């Protein structure tokens, strides 16, 4: 998901809408904004669909007045699709000291047991979302301020969370102790501050990047002042390495590094680890493009856009009829036949999950007359599900959980298949000595099975670590 908050700006909801638009890649299913105005109080709007189709309408934006607002764009994960409008964040609660809205990015690994416990003690849940636990835990805290109640609540949850919250006067940002999901702060004008999942959302409104919220840090922003605290036991940070590979936008900066640079460097590392004699390097657009440029640069094999992506392919278009569904990847991607005919093609993509996309793309490339297809993947084999907020299917549906690299090559049907090594990925992300096995610098559980937070809700459901 993507989260954004703004304080000290006239009609803050407009800035939030723009910020969410820049974060749309983090969630396309739905979006919501809560705003507060000293005269008109809290107002909110929650809508299915893209930000641009909802939060651009003057009538809607006029209903969200005030200098303080937060918002959320929702990512559909298989198990927790927003079925009703009540599932859309931010969530809101009234407390003795006033209202508070909360937007959460990440996934809580003990949400199911917390929910059961909270319901037993009288909580009335409005949604099916794990994030709603935060509001109910706040309600049960005896702390005097919203911020202290948020800290209390977040000390009870496990998993990954970057949270943006607002009261009548304060904008609050928190990151879990491992800092699995990103969260940054920006400044705009004299008194304006914003919090966002990624720096690309600061750029769109012309805000200046101030700094990242640190893992385990809470910031409370009011009247142009920032208070910082550390409400959790300190831990060694484990930022999600998949943010670098796929999830974040390439024009964002993470930990002082450009995401594009890291992806480009992954391609360079891949060319060193898995060279091949070929005529063309083609990305699977758009996620494979920076790595393909890096591969081409390092190998000297010419880069070409052998596949074109239809930019207007919305998610809602995917399902209409069985016949169209079966056309699958063709609706989105098309091979530039005259480019690839007779060529030995290095095809670069970011990841192989189920493998179904890879298989169809290979078919299209071979149908177009390519002589050989050498598949190069900008991440190690995805052999484990993510429980921290990235949508991966059950372990049984992950190709790499069932097959060796050679078996995957044969199943996809390509001439060769190579994944970047975990060490190569770490080097590309700026860790010159590679992965520190004793104390890994990132979360890489979907590749390594090394889960930094035990997925406790999974216990007893047939998931084995
Ligand atoms: P596969 O067919 O192997 O399951 O799909 C792999 C493709 O899915 C890759 O091209 C990659 O860009 C894309 N992908 C990787 N991770 C995610 C994700 O978390 N969500 C979505 N929607 N697509 C993903
Ligand atoms: Fe990121 Fe993978 Fe860890 Fe999930 S399991 S947080 S996708 S590195
Ligand atoms: Mg892709």
Automatic annotation (TrEMBL):
Transmembrane segments: none annotated. Coiled coil: none annotated. Residues 1-224 form the Glutamine amidotransferase type-2 domain. Keywords: 4Fe-4S, Glutamine amidotransferase, Glycosyltransferase, Iron, Iron-sulfur, Magnesium, Metal-binding, Purine biosynthesis, Transferase. It holds the Pfam family GATase_7. One of its GO terms (molecular function) is amidophosphoribosyltransferase activity. Its cofactor is [4Fe-4S] cluster; Mg(2+). It catalyses: 5-phospho-beta-D-ribosylamine + L-glutamate + diphosphate = 5-phospho-alpha-D-ribose 1-diphosphate + L-glutamine + H2O. Mg(2+) binds at residues 287, 349-350. The active site is at residue 1. InterPro entries: GATase_2_dom (IPR017932), Ntn_hydrolases_N (IPR029055), PRTase-like (IPR029057), PRTase_dom (IPR000836), PurF (IPR005854), PurF_N (IPR035584). SUPFAM superfamilies: N-terminal nucleophile aminohydrolases (Ntn hydrolases), PRTase-like. The keyword Glycosyltransferase applies. Its EC number is 2.4.2.14. It is an enzyme of class 2 (transferase). Binds 1 [4Fe-4S] cluster per subunit. Pathway: Purine metabolism; IMP biosynthesis via de novo pathway; N(1)-(5-phospho-D-ribosyl)glycinamide from 5-phospho-alpha-D-ribose 1-diphosphate: step 1/2. [4Fe-4S] cluster binds at residues 240, 386, 443, 446. In the C-terminal section; belongs to the purine/pyrimidine phosphoribosyltransferase family. Catalyzes the formation of phosphoribosylamine from phosphoribosylpyrophosphate (PRPP) and glutamine. NCBIfam families: purF. This is Amidophosphoribosyltransferase. It comes from Rhodobacter lacus.
């Amino acid at each position: 998901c993507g989260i954004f908050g703004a304080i000290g700006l006239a009609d803050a909801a407009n800035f939030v809408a723009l910020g969410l638009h820049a974060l749309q890649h983090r969630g396309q299913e739905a979006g919501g904004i809560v705003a507060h105005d000293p005269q008109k109080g809290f107002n909110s709007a929650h809508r299915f669909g893209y930000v641009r189709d909802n939060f651009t309408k003057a009538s809607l934006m006029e209903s969200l007045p005030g200098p303080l607002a937060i918002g959320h764009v929702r990512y559909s994960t298989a198990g927790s699709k927003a079925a009703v409008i009540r599932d859309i964040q931010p969530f809101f609660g009234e407390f003795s000291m006033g209202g508070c809205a909360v937007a959460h990015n990440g996934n809580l690994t003990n949400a199911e047991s917390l929910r059961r416990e909270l319901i037993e003690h009288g909580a009335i849940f409005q949604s099916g979302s794990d994030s709603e636990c935060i509001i109910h835990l706040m309600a049960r805290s005896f702390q005097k301020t919203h911020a202290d109640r948020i800290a209390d609540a977040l000390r009870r949850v496990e998993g990954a969370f970057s949270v943006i919250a607002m009261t009548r006067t304060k904008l609050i940002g928190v990151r879990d102790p491992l800092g699995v999901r990103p969260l940054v702060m920006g400044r705009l004008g004299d008194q304006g501050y914003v919090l966002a999942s990624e720096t690309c959302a600061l750029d769109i409104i012309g805000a200046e990047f101030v700094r990242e919220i640190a893992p385990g840090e809470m910031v409370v922003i009011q009247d142009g002042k920032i208070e910082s605290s550390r409400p959790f036991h300190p831990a060694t940070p484990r930022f999600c390495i998949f943010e670098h590979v796929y999830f974040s936008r390439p024009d964002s900066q993470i930990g002082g590094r450009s995401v594009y640079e890291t992806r480009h460097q992954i391609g360079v590392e891949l060319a060193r680890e898995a060279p091949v004699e070929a005529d063309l390097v083609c990305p699977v657009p758009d996620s494979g493009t920076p790595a393909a440029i890096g591969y081409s640069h390092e190998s000297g094999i010419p880069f070409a856009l052998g596949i074109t992506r239809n930019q207007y392919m919305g998610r809602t278009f995917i399902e209409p009829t069985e016949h169209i569904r079966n056309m699958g990847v063709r609706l989105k991607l098309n091979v530039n036949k005259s480019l690839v005919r007779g060529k030995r093609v290095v095809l670069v993509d970011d990841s192989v999950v189920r493998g179904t996309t890879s298989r169809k793309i290979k078919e299209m490339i071979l149908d177009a007359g390519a002589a050989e297809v050498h598949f190069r993947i900008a991440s190690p084999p995805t052999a484990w599900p993510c429980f921290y907020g990235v949508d991966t299917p059950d372990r049984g549906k992950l190709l790499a959980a069932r097959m060796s690299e050679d078996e995957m090559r044969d199943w996809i049907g390509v001439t060769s298949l190579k994944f970047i090594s975990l060490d190569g990925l770490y080097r590309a992300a700026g860790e010159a000595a590679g992965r520190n096995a004793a104390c890994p610098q990132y979360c890489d559980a979907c590749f390594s099975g090394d889960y930094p937070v035990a997925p406790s809700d999974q216990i007893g459901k047939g998931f084995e670590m």
